[in-house]
Amino acid sequence: MQRLQTRPQFQAVLAGAIVARTTHFALHRNALDAMNAQTLPAKTHDTPDLFPVQDVWVGAMVPKRWAKRAVTRNAIKRQIYTVSADFSPRLSSTAWVVRLRRDFSRKEFSSASSEALKQAVRSEVQALMQAGAQAA
After folding, report:
1. Is residue 25 a contact partner of residue 100, using CB atoms and an 8 Å limit?
2. Half-sphere exposure of 63 (CA within 13 A, CB side)
3. In what order do the strands lie in the sheet with 25-31?
4. Distances, alpha carbon 55 to alpha carbons 12, 14, 58, 68, 93, in Å
5. Structural element, H or E, at residue 21
6. pTM of structure
7. How far is CA 43 from CA 12, 16, 76, in A?
8. What is the pLDDT of residues 17-74, one digit of tens each?
9. Nearest to 30 by CA among 2, 71, 58
10. What is the DSSP letter of 48?
């Protein structure tokens, strides 16, 4: 499993379809062969491929708008990458982005990095990845 690193990689995946949604997350998917075919005509000798390796690529978008504390953002990203690593054998060689689209209630999860928050994130991301694996 590879991680998305650059802004163009994230933009290319976000241009694809939304495969699944939960209460707090959305799962975006874009096929690697379609993206590399789009970038090939504009490619020069100086620009490398957007996705140089045919593998499962995963990225996590956790904006400050929905998770104010850095501790919370990092905990959510860790859960996303852990669950996606578990599901990577079942996913096809495509690029995926898990995007946080709604905040977790501070009344329900008072601690910035509580076990309850991590478990809630983990269960939603597992549901997303299950739907993504079925759609792939």
Report:
1. yes
2. 11
3. 2-3, 57-61, 94-100, 25-31, 17-21
4. 16, 18, 10, 32, 5
5. strand 17-21
6. 0.85
7. 15, 20, 35
8. 999 999 999 999 998 765 554 544 454 444 468 888 889 999 999 999 999 999 999 9
9. 58
10. P
Domains of the chain plus CATH, in order, are: 2-135 (3.30.230.10)
CB atoms within 10 A of CB 58: 24
Task: Name residue 18's beta-bridge partners.
Answer: 28
Tokens of 93: 């060689």
Tokens of 116: 């309850």
Check: CB of residue 95 under 8 Å from CB of residue 129.
no
Report the 3 state secondary structure along 56-109: CEEEEECCCCCCCCHHHHHHHHHHHHHHHHHHHHHCCCEEEEEEECCCCCCCCC
Four-CA torsion 34, 35, 37, 38, nearest 10 degrees = 120
**Size (the chain), residues:** 136
What is the three-class DSSP state of 3? strand
